[in-house]
């Protein structure tokens, strides 16, 4: 059992607003189109959607940046690529509206701005359901010119912040050169660098930490996590193969597990919210944002994971890519039973 100091957590979390962060990765927007479906088209056997409204929210690496911005009051920069198209302007404007610095964003006429369009409908006395999703993206890695443009600004951008997040949705922004250079520069300036990647976890050798979910961890190690023994084996295997200082494995309703190279330890944190889960979309971005800021604030790895767990338990109560803020997190910590705090990490 690990003792959790309530006052220490609150004090450190309130320092998030002074921490500057950089997100490098696959910047995207989620376009949500809603309407009513009352009849079938005469032209084809398809639904007719009577459009009611459209909502645009930040997705992909942009959602990680948005979560950071809500937690550190807008001290966030992003490096990414978008097309030279209608949606690129929507992406930049939406990032700016979220108080995110887009001065390092690069436009590339040969690529599409990453957009995930979800079309949802409902009819009389029914719930809204997703009908179809349309993905706009370029499935080839950025070209050499764009890569060089990013490499040129990395050192200046990283030197200006306290923590770096590499947010890889496998949509071809983060080349090996960009990953390696980011890690090299972060080490040079003694910055915390955290990787949130879905695949190719061994591309991120040398990061401070990474935050894979359990399915991605299982794919990487090549076996299922079925009990504490296989969980521990997988976590320490990740540490060995990535040379990370810490690995945080998110496990859904099973909570989280944080592996610490320094002490050869694993701490398991139960999920704080199992009953009021509405939507887990974007929860991983909330985790990496809160966890990274917590590490940068001086909290220990397990304390940082604890804070990230609380943040995730808040956003999964809402639909879509939700965010939270330091006031809400601190309020939840204040209201937690003290014995729950002490028993939550073991």
Characteristics of this structure?
346 residues, alpha/beta, UDP-N-acetylmuramoyl-L-alanine:D-glutamate ligase, nine-stranded mixed beta sheet, globular
Shape: globular
Q: How many DSSP H or I helices?
A: 11
**Strand fraction band?**
25-35%
The first-level CATH class name:
Alpha Beta
**Going by CATH, what is the homologous superfamily?**
Ribokinase
Strand order of the largest sheet: 6-4-1-10-11-12-13-14-15
Helix share of residues?
Answer: 25-40%
Average pLDDT confidence is: 92
How many structural domains does the protein architecture include? Answer: 1
Rg over alpha carbons: 20 Å
The biggest sheet, with number of strands, parallel, antiparallel or mixed sense and barrel status, is: 9 strands, mixed
CATH topology descriptor: UDP-N-acetylmuramoyl-L-alanine:D-glutamate ligase
How far apart are the termini? 4 Å
Order of helices and strands: HEEEHEEHEEEEHEHEEHHEEEHHHH
Low-confidence stretches: 275-280
CATH level-two architecture:
3-Layer(aba) Sandwich
Structural class: alpha/beta
Number of E-state strands: 15
Question: Could you explain how this protein is built, in words?
Answer:
There is one protein chain. The protein is α/β, with parallel strands linked by helices and 346 residues long. The chain has one domain: Ribokinase (UDP-N-acetylmuramoyl-L-alanine:D-glutamate ligase). The protein is 38% helix and 26% strand. The chain has 11 helices and 15 strands. The strands form 3 sheets. It has a 9-stranded mixed sheet with strand order 6-4-1-10-11-12-13-14-15, sandwiched between helices. The chain has a 4-stranded mixed sheet with strand order 3-2-8-9. Helix 6 packs across helix 7. It is globular and about 65 Å long.
């Amino acid at each position: 059992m690990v003792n959790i100091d309530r006052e220490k957590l609150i004090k450190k979390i309130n320092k998030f607003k002074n921490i500057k962060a950089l997100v490098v990765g696959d910047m995207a927007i989620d376009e949500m189109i809603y309407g009513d479906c009352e009849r079938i088209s005469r032209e084809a056997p398809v639904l007719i959607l009577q459009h009611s409204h459209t909502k645009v929210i930040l997705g992909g690496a942009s959602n990680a940046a948005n979560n950071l911005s809500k937690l550190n009051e807008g001290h966030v920069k992003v490096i990414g690529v978008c097309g030279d198209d209608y949606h690129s302007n929507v992406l930049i404007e939406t990032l700016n509206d979220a108080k995110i610095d887009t001065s390092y964003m690069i436009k590339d006429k040969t690529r599409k701005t990453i957009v995930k369009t979800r079309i949802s409908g409902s009819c009389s006395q029914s719930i809204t359901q997703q009908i179809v999703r349309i993905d706009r993206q370029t499935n080839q890695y950025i070209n050499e010119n764009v890569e060089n443009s990013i490499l040129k600004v990395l050192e200046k951008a990283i030197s200006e912040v306290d923590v770096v997040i590499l947010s890889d949705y496998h949509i071809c922004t983060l080349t090996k050169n960009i990953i390696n250079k980011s890690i090299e520069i972060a080490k040079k300036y003694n910055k915390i660098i955290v990787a949130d990647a879905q695949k190719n976890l061994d591309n991120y050798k040398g990061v401070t930490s990474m935050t894979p979910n359990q399915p991605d961890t299982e794919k990487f190690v090549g076996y299922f996590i079925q009990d504490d023994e296989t969980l521990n084996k997988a976590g320490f295997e990740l540490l060995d193969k990535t040379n990370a200082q810490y690995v945080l494995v998110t496990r859904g309703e099973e909570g989280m597990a944080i592996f610490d190279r320094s002490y050869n330890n694993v701490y398991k944190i139960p999920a704080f919210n199992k009953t009021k889960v509405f939507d887990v979309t974007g929860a991983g971005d909330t985790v990496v944002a809160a966890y990274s800021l917590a590490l940068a604030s001086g909290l220990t790895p397990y304390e940082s994971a604890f804070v990230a767990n609380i943040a995730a338990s808040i956003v999964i109560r809402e639909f879509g890519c939700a965010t939270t803020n330091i006031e809400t997190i601190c309020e939840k910590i204040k209201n937690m039973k003290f014995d729950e705090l002490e028993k939550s990490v073991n």
